[in-house]
Amino acid sequence: MENQFKKFIPSIYLKNGKATRSLTDPTVVFGDPALLARTYADHDADGLLVFDQSLDEAEHRNALDVIGRICRQVGVPVIGAGHIDTPKDIEALLNAGCTMAAVNFSRQDNIELVKPACQRYGKGHIAACYRGVDAIEDNRALIDACVTEMILIDETQIAKALKIEGTPSILSMPDISLDKVLEFFSMGNVSGITGNAVNDNYRNLSDLKKLCRENGASVHYHAARYAWKDFRKDPQGLLPVVVQEDSTGEVLMVAYMNEEAYRMTVRTGRMTYWSRSRNELWIKGDTSGHFQYVKSLTGDCDMDTLLAKVDQIGAACHTGHHSCFFQTDQQR
Fold first, then answer.
1. What's the sign of the alpha-carbon dihedral 127, 189, 160, 78?
2. What is the pLDDT of residue 52?
3. Residues 309, 256, 207, 75: is their CA dihedral positive or negative?
4. What is the distance between the alpha carbons of residues 100 and 154, in angstroms, rounded to a whole number?
5. Which of 118, 116, 117, 142 is nearest to 130 (CA)?
6. pLDDT of res. 288
């Protein structure tokens, strides 16, 4: 795992439809968890960890709705955790859009769900939350076979967790320091950090990632291969951009960038354009919530057109269609 990017993953603790401070602190920190999730994603989070703290089925159904909204509004992977009692609960999290469901290894009944869930959904969709290392050591063969990532949720157990080999862990941390992050990120058995260490510092994630890269840590950091001067612009100094959905290959739209829009796109990871009609910058999704998160930017052979592959949230077209190219001219 040493060659994979190390991740900064904010945690959202759902309780009664709101985001609380932590699993043990019920203080409400944000009234709209989906908006909070989008804010974290917009500030360069590598993923999100969402804990469902429901106490009954009605609250659980509401939490699943919130998790679904979160998954639809962010362009980063979401790990769903909490209130997993049956195989259907794992299925519900994955159907809501989570990339992984995190099973609680502090509960034997949860551990018994792992193998059948792995067989049905694949190892890549199963994570393991744990508080103590004994639960991991006692189930080493199961974890190696069925779990892609582990999540330490007890901040007091970090020293012991660092000794676990094999499947890497995301570590919950109460606070953050560059030295500690660099130390952890140098270890092959650590895949990222989460908890209030990340939540409280989400505005600084881009700067923190830059420092990590400068100090040799492998983190995902937005950087451009080409400078603006490398492109051939039109007479108005603009560069046409063809936008393609990364997951399907569908062409979504065509727009234009000026230098500022290009720099903002590279820096933020969100597609930003220049409006020729309004003569102003516009971030795709700022008014609609239908953001485009950059997966790759590629110049064509003449370097006079940019191909942007994106994760599209919602519809790309202002008409509500997923793609602007919906008016068929000819059919066979």
1. negative
2. 97
3. negative
4. 20
5. 142
6. 87
